[in-house]
# Entry
Amino acid sequence: MAESTLEAVFSYHNLVHAVAGAAGSVTAMTIFFPLETARTRLQIDETRRAQHTPEILAEIAREEGMESLYRGWFPVITSVCCSNFVYFYTFRCIRAVCVNTLRNKAALKDLVIGMVAGVINVLMTTPLWVVNMRLKLQGARFQTQHFREDKHPFYHGIWDALTRILRDEGVQGLWGGTMSSLVLVSNPAIHFMIYEAIKRYMNRFASGRELSGLQYFFCGAIAKMVATLITYPLQIVQSKLRYGKEEELQQYRNHLGRISAVIRHILQVQGASGLYKGLEAKLLQTVFTAALMFLTYEKIAAFIFKLMRAQ
# Structure
């Protein structure tokens, strides 16, 4: 029993899915990275006026140059690659081990597995996401006054940022936003559940044929759009906690207190609409990125499995 469980966990099948998922995420994020830049600025910079995404991108490029749209690309890509490798590998491992569990409730099974995989992913990769948020906003021209006056030190790459945050802010600084991230494991879990459900539904009409690239793109886009709409306010809180320069956070040590403080601050300063500021840019970024990621992931995985069968 133990041997079969180990085989299910350490299998080429799981590794192929993890590599394909990581490659797909890197490809998609690179292509749509400017949308990620627009989303981050709107979420963090409170006094920056919410506009349509093309206007925000034009404004950032005009103020800071075209290269600013890709500022922080490498740390973000590193985080995305590691995070998706961990998530896809964990998801497939748990699925393989629990193959006989909830056989007749596939959607519920995918949701539970997705949440467990998400928790493991958050605990392992949060420091990378904290670092990429800091590096991505390094050199940004904020319109919010206290962000202009109280800046983070200049970091020379990922390793320098990791060591300096650990030294200056302690372990808590590296795992900033962990609680909101743990709550947000519902996002990829909902995403995977809906994606797998749509894919199963479409496969019924495929008569054994593989789904087309457009169909995979459609499955990924719809699934991510629903997941994002449900969890977006917490994503704003997560971004602010990762950046770590909110004035109202200094008096709170526990995670729940910090989350509630950020939510109260947003409501006081921006109103209820502040919880959805940047939603357009986020939907464009996350839907297109997720759709292209799943399309690339499915094609890479299918190609590798075809090569393995040929050998």
In short: The two ends are 29 Å apart (CA to CA).
